TrEMBL record:
It comes from the Bacteria. The chain crosses the membrane at residues 127-148, 154-173, 185-205, 225-248. It comes from Endozoicomonas gorgoniicola. It holds the Pfam family DUF805. InterPro entries: DUF805. Keywords: Membrane, Transmembrane, Transmembrane helix. This is DUF805 domain-containing protein.
Amino acid sequence: MDAKHYKVLFEGKILPGNDEDSVKERLKTLFHADDSRISRLFSGKSYAIRKNISKKEAQKYEKAIMQAGGQCRIVAMDNSWELEPIEEEQTKAGTSGKSLLTRINSRFRKGSSEPFRLIGRMGRCQFNSLCWLIMVIEAVTFLLPMYLPTIQQISTVTMGLHALALIVSVYAMTARLHDLNRSGLQWLFVIIPIVNLMFMSWLAFAKGTNGGNAYGEPPAKPGLFAKLLGLYIPAGIVLVAAAGIYLYQDELLNLIQQVPARLSKEIPGEVGGYLPFLSL
């Protein structure tokens, strides 16, 4: 069930092709209101018809008002964002539907507190799935040059794949931040060493905001493929790794203890081989 975070605002506007007096009479019947209340509705000020209701309830009011020939808005209780209006052709208001210009204008009508945004929200599973896709792109970028004949082809393909990976990465991080009700520009944290590891872990595991937020409605539920890549496979890897560490902890501890000794023996020899002047 939707969280009760919405209010229905009426500002005295009516749909094209309707007479104001007729709309007043229909709204008077709809709300069982007297003349003084109807006058307040058409005073030109924003009037909250209902508050603290769910999205479904708010859209029922919106549809009923549009059937009566009026126009209303569904806004979050904190005024941080606004729902898209329902299509007028779904009502009996006698209109053929909204034009593209009207729908765009409705986005700008929300004001500076909710600017026009093209990137919506993304859940954890979808984000983790895109992370796997980015890893595949980078793996292809690493392996493909071995099969290309010329340096020009290698550089062109490599740059193109890196650019693709970067675009997908920025999109995924921005959409995930929007799901957390954060500015998409915060993806710049990924360029800070050490901080980027904590930042990416936060994006991968943090729960998005309940209900709508300043960046739109909650993301769609992940499909089977997104769950497979974003949830089941990572969880399986973690479980297998944990089981391996538990079962072979003595061997791992032995190996870790031998690392310093091996490094002290092998690294100087390798350095001397690549840089002979150091052994002089």
